[in-house]
Amino acid sequence: MTASTRSLFVVPPLLCGTIPLVCVPACEWMAVARNGDDGFLWFEILFALPLLAAPPLLLVALIGLCFRRVRRGSALVALCSAAYLVAFPVSVQIGQRIRMRAFHQLAERSKPLIEAIRGFEQKHGRPPESLEALVPEFMPSIPSTGVRAYPEYDYSTASKNFDGNPWVLTVSTPSGGINFDQFMYFPLTNYPEQGYGGWLERVGDWAYVHE
Fold it and tell me: What is the pLDDT of residue 160?
């Protein structure tokens, strides 16, 4: 096998595996960075499209290996398809770890706001009607989440809607496309496994709702 032939069977499959491993986690990181934008998550759809094409291409390529005339091209297609099929799920897992780490950090940044709400409760015997009621006695201003893609906290005292919690903090965190993920804090931390439009993953004292 010549050097050029070896390159043909190494470089394209390597690229097919490397591109999703780099780009998908990068999209997740750029979405949850302090100056990020969740619009980057739409680009992940572009990397999901080849995943749909890879299985039929792999099947056709394996059949093509039986025919000498197209064996070389079929082998290349099979290697590229297999590389993408392996790399893409791994890239999604890496991206999710990056995303969840950002929400662990958000939970930590939110502690002063939660302490302010609890301070209001202790003084007045009830939760504040809105976050603005915390200013200026308990906080100088209402903080941002620190994630530009998901900048605002939503606050509710509708306990009947949230498993009996007297108040709830939520952050709308769509994860690309038409999606309604959210990040939630219950003071009672009595999160169900399912509910609120999806399944819940604990993130410290918070929970992330995967739609």
Answer: 75
Q: Which has more confidence, 90 or 178?
A: 90
- What's the distance, CA 25 to chain centroid? 10
Report DSSP letters for the chain, one per residue: --HHHHHHHHHHHHHHHHHHHHHHHHHHHHHHSTT--GGGGGHHHHHHHHHHHHHHHHHHHHHHTTSGGGHHHHHHHHHHHHHHHHHHHHHHHHHHHHHHHHHHHHHHHTHHHHHHHHHHHHHHSS--SSGGGGTTTT-SSPPP-S-TTS---EEE--GGGTTT-S-EEEEE---SSS---EEEE-TT----SEETTEEEEEETTEEEEE-
What is the band of 2 on the pLDDT scale with cuts at 50, 70, 90?
low
**For residue range 162-191, what is the model confidence (pLDDT) as tens digits?**
889 999 999 999 987 678 899 999 999 999
Domain ranges of the chain: 3-99, 109-210
